[in-house]
Amino acid sequence: KKWKQLSRLQRSVILFLFAFLAVCGVISYTSMGEAWKSLTNKPLDDQRTEQEIPGVKLANPAVLPAPQKADANRGDYPELSPQKQPNPPHVRRGPSNLQIKAPQRDTRLKTRHSTIRAVEGPVQTDKGEKTEKSIISWRGAVIEPDQNTEPPSSKIKEPEKPSSVEAEDQKEPVPINERQLAVIEAFRHAWRGYKDFAWGHDELKPLSKSYSEWFGLGLTLIDALDTMWILGLKEEFEEARKWVANDLVFDKNVDVNLFESTIRILGGLLSTYHLSGDGLFLEKAKDIGNRLMPAFKTPSKIPYSDVNIGRGTAHPPRWTSDSTVAEVTSIQLEFRELSRLTGDEKFRKAVDEVMKHVHTLSGKNDGLVPMFINTNSGQFTHLGVYTLGARADSYYEYLLKQWIQGGKKENELLEDYMRAIEGVKKHLLQRSAPKKLTFVGELAHGHFSAKMDHLVCFLPGTLALGAHNGLDADHMKLAEALIETCYQMYAQVETGLSPEIVHFNLHAQKGHKDVEIKPADRHNLLRPETVESLFYMYRFTGDKKYQDWGWEILQNFNKYTRVPTGGYTSINNVQNPSNPEPRDKMESFFLGETLKYMFLLFSDDIDLINLDKYIFNTEAHPLPIWVPA
Ligand code: DMJ
């Protein structure tokens, strides 16, 4: 009634006033919003933290802030896809030549790692930390930080920070040379056979154009991943990566050998993670690492040899409750690194306990260990036999390498290593006739045997690595003498390839060389140890003769073990050049180790896996040294 009584003018004024007040209200609400936003840097309607986004696991301060492939198949990690990470911080990892200078397709055979370009300079993050903004990967894609690491549970300690291998200066790419090209060609030939006839299986049988299974886990493919990365074989690497992403499944009712799967699979995945920065490999490494842990549930904590990775049960071999000493003491580099990356101490505790226990055990002979250890009693068994070959070899290698990996602080490891080398000198070193080659024999219940496995040829490389890390200079002298012997194990044989085992002559006999070979020992499995040691010797001395020796060996592999339809084969008779008797098997370590060490041996680039920053596991998978020199 009242509204109707008002004049038209009065009604207009009132309507105008209402409209004015409404506009003021909207403006003030908006500016409050702006003020709030400027305080929180978040829009009013989006005040959830990332942790609160349903279904999203936030990368716990990236355990190892790995660059991640921008082109990684997000579908592999469905729970991560909704996560928003504007302007992610990035930390570079690995030697610059590996990380940012990879081959481009056309130039692959000219320079090893040609073109990763840009590192945009350091930028300030929201938290005020200085960090790299982004980097262009060798795939030409912007690398994102690792999103795949799980937040630690309350039980899990904060992981260690990555080693300073991250902060390396860029250097000019070192062009690859003819010999390295020959290794690339050999690798591709081997890979072609694997791809055509054994894809996704453990080993290629190149003659029957088929495959064999050991664990049924694509052993050759995994063992070869980081070799492809180092050789710059981008297409092959990508194809293999897809198989790992889509087809590598550890949830299988299958028994695997703890040692072999640790050094080849866990080691291979961890090193590929480090070189590529691709979180997929760390995820897979965690998976297999966890599945191997039941092996340590024994009365003595000395692990069983075999684990069923699907069922979570472990057991010793059927005929004994013993484990092999080299096997239980050569899984440490890998499990320790897994702990560092995940922040979960259980891996490291399990393997450190084994080392501590072995450190205190009686039954050693001046630091030399027997070959077997019982999983119930924790005591050495079959006492009195000492070798640096099969069943004991990598115990010695891992003493030194764990000491280096951990920043040279774990004195017990160093003590045990130094004592053992003294034991070798005292009990196992002899000289052959007629050439006076220094070799490492075996001791059985006080009797010396002039038998040396090809496996022992890891020793010159390990001794040289120790000397490089400040140990006695006479270790280097011994390394020089032993690598000459290992070379002679090839050079004195008709095919120029070493047999599995040699016996040295201790006394000169007319018409006899230093090296004798028994019929049962004259096979060659494409093993890496001599080439491995040649690589260390060349790195530390620069003496080209080591490259030349390696070149001879490569040529002989090509001459006697190469299968025309793809792949290389182990052979039964290194003494018969006209019929070396192919065995129809290409071991995974030929791609994982032998060809990798060849490629590194022929390189003059010390940053191509810098030995002050990386330590190779016993399957040639490089892992970072935690406190690099
Ligand atoms: C590899 O699996 C490893 O090098 C191991 O330490 C010894 N045996 C083979 C290669 O010969």
Describe this structure in words.
The protein has 629 residues and is mostly helical. It has a domain at 178-213 and 324-622: Glycosyltransferase (Alpha/alpha barrel). The protein has 18 helices and 22 strands. Helix 8 (279-292) crosses helix 10 and helix 16 packs antiparallel against helix 17. The longest helix has 33 residues, at 8-40. It is elongated. The model is unreliable at 24-155 and 161-168 (pLDDT under 50).
How would you briefly describe this protein structure?
By secondary structure, this protein is mainly alpha-helical.
Distance between the termini: 93 Å
Percent helix among the residues? 40-55%
Q: What's the number of helices?
A: 18
Label the CATH architecture of the domain at 178-213 and 324-622. Alpha/alpha barrel
Oligomer: single chain
Enumerate the distinct ligands: 1-deoxymannojirimycin
Strand order of the largest sheet: 7-8-9
CATH class of the domain at 178-213 and 324-622: Mainly Alpha
- Tally of strands: 22
What's the alpha carbon Rg, rounded to whole Å?
Answer: 30 Å
CATH third-level topology of the domain at 178-213 and 324-622: Glycosyltransferase
